[in-house]
Amino acid sequence: MKNIVILISGRGSNMQAVVEAAIPDVRIRAVLSNNENAAGLAWAAERDIATAALNHKNYPDRAAFDAAMAAEIDRYEPDLVVLAGFMRILTPEFCRRYEGRLINIHPSLLPAFPGLHTHRRALDAGCRLAGCTIHFVTAELDCGPVIAQGAVPVFDSDTADTLAQRVLAVEHKLLPQAVADFAAGRLNISGNRVSSIRTADADAFLSN
Ligand code: GRF
Q1: Confidence of residue 199 (pLDDT cuts 50, 70, 90)
Q2: Going by fewer Cβ within 10 Å, which terminus of the chain is more open, N or C?
Q3: Is the CB of 104 under 6 A from ligand 1?
């Protein structure tokens, strides 16, 4: 059984997708946030998942907040920490502490559009494809070995909101898949590349 801790800052729909996927041999130990009003916290608490919020404004600096968050995370002895819409930049120390067991979902086809407002920027750049990326986290923002990417078309009529919705539907499929692959030991990091050893079990899980 693999222990997973998920960090969110708001709605938490990606976290919900991971929980609802009921991935074999995965236990969602806790959902943590920097925002006590994150809607996803209430959703998780209703399902008897441990939750906690640490308000970053109560800490003198980024390092202090990250240390407190790490202490909270470590209570659950996670095999994997998932950043699922966690909107805080993490210190290099935090990233190093969880190296190889910290993943992030980002709503663009990295390395295009790291940072914020990805859908607006994809539209402004005239992209015909947009998408999302799941990657291992390194100290550099929205970098790190890519686990999976999903692409969607951009339509002439798109706004940032309609594009975000189309991408989000793909996020909800890719993130549980990535967690399942990690938990089953199917991901191997080599430099900046991740190879994924798919098995019949994985394919069966994905087709459900
Ligand atoms: C997602 O688009 C995620 O990729 C980005 O923030 C959004 C979070 O949505 N980092 P939710 O909280 O999972 O609904």
Answers
A1: low
A2: C
A3: no
